[in-house]
Amino acid sequence: MSQQEGFEPRILGFLCNWCSYAGADLAGVSRFQYPTNLRVIRVMCSGRVDPTLVLEAFMRGIDGVMVLGCHPGDCHYISGNYYTERRIITLQKFLEIIGVRQDRLFLDWVSAGEGERFANLVRDFTEKIMKIGPLSNDLPPYQLQARLLAARDALSQQRMRWLVNREKELWDEGNVFGEKVDQDEFNKVKFEALVREYEKNRILHSISDKAQSVKEIAKATDMTPREVLRNLIVMEQSGLVTVSGIDGVSPKYRRLGG
Amino acid sequence: MEEARVGVFVCRCGTNIGGFLDVPALVEYAKGLPNVVYSKENLYTCSEAGLTEIRQAIAEQKLNRVIVASCTPRTHEPLFRNTCKEAGLNPYLFEFVNIRDQCSWVHMQETKKATEKAKDLIRMGVARARLLEPQEEIEVEVAPSALVIGGGIAGMTCALSLADRGFEVTLVEREKKLGGLLKDLYKLYPTQGDAVELIGAKIREIEKNRNIEVLTSATVKEIKGFFGNYDVTVKQGEKDFPFRAGVVVIATGAEEFKPVGMYGYEGKNVVTQLELERMLKENKFNANNVVMIQCVGARNEGRNYCSRVCCMTALNNAMIILERNPKAQVFTLYRDMQTYGFYEDLYRKAREKGIIFVKYSPERPPAVDEGVVKVFDEFLGEELRLPYNLVVLSTPMVAHPDSKELAQMLKVPVDEYGFFLEAHVKLRPLDFATDGVYLCGSAHWPSTVSESIAQAYGAASRASIPMSRRHVVAEPIVSVVDQEKCIGCGLCEMICPFKAIRVEETPKGRIARTITASCKGCGVCGASCPQRAITMRHFKDEQMLAEVVVLAEGK
Amino acid sequence: MEAKGSKPVMVIGGGIAGLQAAIDLGDMGIKVHLIESKPSIGGRMAQLDKTFPTNDCSICILSPKMAECYRHPNITLHTYSEIKEVSGKMGDFSVKVLKKARFVKEKECIGCGDCAAKCPVRVLDEFDMELRRRGAVYLYFLQALPMVMTIDRDNCLYLTRGVCRICEKVCTRQAIDFEQKDTEIDLDVGGIIVATGFDPFNPIGLSEYGYKRYRNVVTALEYERLICASGPTGGHLLRPSDRKPAEKIAFIQCVGSRDVKNNSYCSAVCCMHVTKEAILAREHDPKTQSYVFYMDMRAVGKGFQRYITRGEEEYRIKYIRGRVAKITEDLEGNPIIWYEKTIGPTTEKMKVDLAVLATSFVPRRGTEELAKILGVELDEYGFFKTEPYAPFNSTREGIFVCGCCREPVDIPDSVAQASGAAAKAAEIVTGGYS
């Protein structure tokens, strides 16, 4: 994708107070220059960053998000950055799945002494976003919004939050039976569950105003009718949707409850 | 809550900001933001003049939110927070916007864009400030009494130091007598002082001290409560002793590893250093061909650490042997001679006294046969056959097998070898991540007598801090649980590194509750909670979202 | 035990030990006067890149402690100051402190550096181990606290020759004040803690190593500045003679230590810090190969043995047991290490890009004078003398010693000792001392 004329990337950074924010300050003290596109939100620990907040940023048109924490082992709060790592890596893969370039979400570790490195990271990321273009390049606007919204709702769901935040312990220490969980297996299960949640939310959003048939839902969500039906069956069983009306020979589904 | 009245102070910082950003434009821009009722520039907001202007504006303009856009919160946030406090405004209604270290100083060639960036940052700051809430610093009372677990040299030294400062100390020792490992030692390096005399003197001091209650043949049965208010139950025989402690010090020491099945160890002709010292003490020693083997059961796959004290111990005992019997032959088989620091002199003396050193490699360890030790000397490149009537094995100090149990009771971690794991290996060696519990002596890591004493004083200092103030003040950036949303799943309790949030039984069911005294405000729980029932004071989800929203909105 | 109304405690030295002792005492409610001879607190730890065995960035873990000390309501910082006289007794000392003039108004200066950028003088910078030059007006290091400039009176053109004053002209805060005078203040304290730290041994007397003769033979502290991101080469291991990246490095242990002709003791931390330095080199550039020439590998602390194993296995450090007899240089400035491998034994030589001497820790320059002023004795090595089973007691009641000015120790031990000395001092000033 060639660089678009006059495109100024909008980049948001979450920096942790003790390491990356301090590193950014050091870049300033040392006068290491970098592009002006970055806007920073300070958090006490990178572990404060909820992946849904990152999705909110993308939903509103931010082209690139940087999450910078302390180097593993150096976290001021001992282990916060390990959770950051698991969440953001999961989110990166998830973005790719829903059609957003995963390199729009950047995760790295910057210590309080790495002023020059911070400046370099910001410069490199800004240039990368300039090259790949604005977020709207990845998907048409309606699709973008709908997908990001469903992704956000999927990651807000309690089961997903539980899975993602237990990852670290399950991999390192094992479950209550002392069995260490195989990482590849876990990832497979996690992403399957995540995609299922995501598809469920896509469907729910598309029928939020009025009842739709399988064909209509498939068209609106860009999913195959088969995928839609498979989800609807499960959702009907769990009481999330119900049949409400007919369109020719196809049943229409609407949301149940809130 | 009342409508926000925001005051924005844009600092020029001399020319550091003023020379690059269009400060008047920033002031004008701020005026146009929602809820901003006052906006002005200062040459140096952090100067007395600047601070006075803030104070005046708060009073005259009835400001209830103050924003300073200048350097970095990491330098002056406390200063400006204090200034607000002095003017009667809650210090947590102050917000800092970084337009120097992360703006003017790093975009010196792009001043127009940098000014636009500063506008965005100020807009984000105002959006956040509108949603800020007053916070009160949290005071937690601390009982001026300490529980010291372990009555060895470390535990006793710590107890005495605390007692001498006027704190009440309960010293719990599980053996019948106080004294720990030192009771079994003979002469101490480097002074050749008598171990039993040293420990006897300490015990006498303990017995004289009115602030120390000693419970021997006793163990800690249960510890409930939290930092500042531990409810301790000590079990002594059939009786239970409950009491309250503000802080806990772990001084439970370590023990000598017994090399069962190694090098022909049987406790008679092949003994450990501790057993040798007992022989020397009780005058049961009469060997004249002694071979000492270092690193037995240490610095290997299963126990990859050096136990720090064994080389000095071995050399000290070797020299005692030579003093008793100048005709004796003592060989020391070693891998590296760990006589560090000033203990190097012991090594020099030992060589001068005629102790013979043989270096062996872990790939070809010595073999203890009937009456003779076979060892491949790395320097000579030959196998030696050393006749002996006593082999002394230098084995490492290892953690007590029940250290893990105590660790779980106190909610502190142990490392892979069972030694207690401190908060930070470099800068907080005597603290735990969990507040209110401290550590000293060989329970932390094998240490010499001198080092145990030093650490004991150190732990006493650390433990005395919360007790001296009678209370601790916690920064109010703590987690808050929405009791209606919480379902008591316990994820937060599992992941909190400070054990500062716990699920408790309540009439409404199991619900998580923040231990505000221990919460450090990292927010990991807030971002993990499956029910989204936890948020962080001063870093609430809504506040962060507001920043994202106004940033994306643009002008 | 209330600390209100108790006498303050003086801490001499603003390195990690001094800072920890001051913070502990301050947190107990006791007032502290912290005297630091350099323009900024921080000590040796501020000069290090990373610390073993965690490889934490040194300044990252140090600066929160510096900031805590700087802002602490109970601690009064006296930087660029020296002890002139001590009288009195335990519980009641009277100390004369000389506050040297910086010729900069501390309240006005914000450390922006405009003056330093224009100063025409060029002198060797002490903090960067003389690997670069600074002006006569300078900031001791980038994260200095207090963050104010200092004018070096021995090299300032105006103060020595009456000309220039450019700094005064460019300062927008009128913070330069050539009229400033040294002042003396009297402080009454109940106890004194000495935490003055160490100097690296100067190996110039060991001519066999060629220090200062060959440009690519450096000391360990100089190496730390080279590999440090905020150092004179931006953290790139460029050797002094030609700025070529150093890919083959020799580390020589026990330079001046375990040596009856110089310092007979062992400096306790060099085996560890050299392993760290070799690891950092390799992390920076995977092509680096390091060789450590040692006598005994001393890794006695928590996690230390593991660290050495990691160094060997993950970072491929080659540990060679042997003594280096001499270092020479070839025509390209490459040091040649002539050594004897004790296991053999064989004598060999090795060409490297850079040779790093792990020099002994010695008491700071000025220790003898300070000891005289304090009225305490030094031990046979020149460190402050203490008793083995009363490890912080100096030979004068009420004066305590901790950290490297007592004996060479690593950072965790310095910190633990500092807290210990604080406990001892607290016993005196809050009463109940027995």
Fraction of residues of chain A in helices? 40-55%
* Strand line-up of the largest beta sheet of chain C: 15-21-16-17-18-19-20
Give the fraction of residues assigned to helices of chain C: 10-25%
Separate helix tally of chain A: 9
From the alpha-carbon coordinates, what is the Rg of chain C to the nearest angstrom? Answer: 23 Å
Task: Give the amount of beta strand of chain A, in percent.
Answer: 5-15%
Q: What is the third-level CATH name, the topology of the largest domain in chain C? A: FAD/NAD(P)-binding domain
Through-space gap between termini of chain A: 42 Å
Q: What value does the average pLDDT of chain A take? A: 90
List SSEs of chain A in N-to-C order.
Answer: EHEHEHEHHHHEHHEE
- End-to-end C-alpha gap of chain C: 15 Å
Count the beta strands of chain A: 7
Report on the structure:
The complex is a heterotrimer of chains A (258), B (555) and C (434). Chain A contains nine helices and seven strands; from the N terminus they run E-H-E-H-E-H-E-H-H-H-H-E-H-H-E-E. Chain A has helices spanning 20-29, 51-59, 80-98, 115-132, 141-156, 158-172, 183-206, 214-221, 225-237; strands spanning 11-16, 38-43, 64-69, 105-109, 212-213, 241-247, 250-255. A four-stranded parallel sheet of chain A has the order 2-1-3-4, with helices on both faces. Chain A has a three-stranded antiparallel sheet with strand order 5-7-6. In chain A, helix 1 (20-29) crosses helix 4 and helix 2 (51-59) packs antiparallel against helix 5 (141-156). The radius of gyration of chain A is 21 Å and the shape is flat. In chain B, helix 2 crosses helix 3 (73-86), helix 6 (153-164) packs parallel to helix 12 (449-469) and helix 8 packs parallel to helix 9 (310-324). Chain B is elongated and about 95 Å long. Chain B has four domains: 6-135, 3-Layer(aba) Sandwich (Rossmann fold); 145-255 and 398-472, FAD/NAD(P)-binding domain; 262-386, 3-Layer(bba) Sandwich (FAD/NAD(P)-binding domain); 479-537, Alpha-Beta Plaits, CATH 3.30.70. Chain C is α/β, with parallel strands linked by helices and 434 residues long. Chain C folds into three domains: 9-100 and 182-197 and 364-429, FAD/NAD(P)-binding domain (3-Layer(bba) Sandwich), CATH 3.50.50; 114-170, no CATH class; 202-360, FAD/NAD(P)-binding domain (3-Layer(bba) Sandwich). Chain C has helices spanning 16-27, 58-71, 114-118, 157-161, 166-170, 220-227, 270-284, 304-313, 367-374, 411-429, and strands spanning 9-12, 32-36, 50-51, 56-57, 75-79, 81-89, 92-99, 123-124, 133-134, 137-138, 150-151, 183-189, 191-194, 198-200, 217-219, 248-255, 289-294, 318-329, 335-341, 346-351, 354-359, 361-363, 399-401. In chain C, helix 1 (16-27) runs parallel beside helix 10. The relative contact order of chain C is 0.16. Classes of the chains: A alpha/beta (258), B alpha/beta (555), C alpha/beta (434).
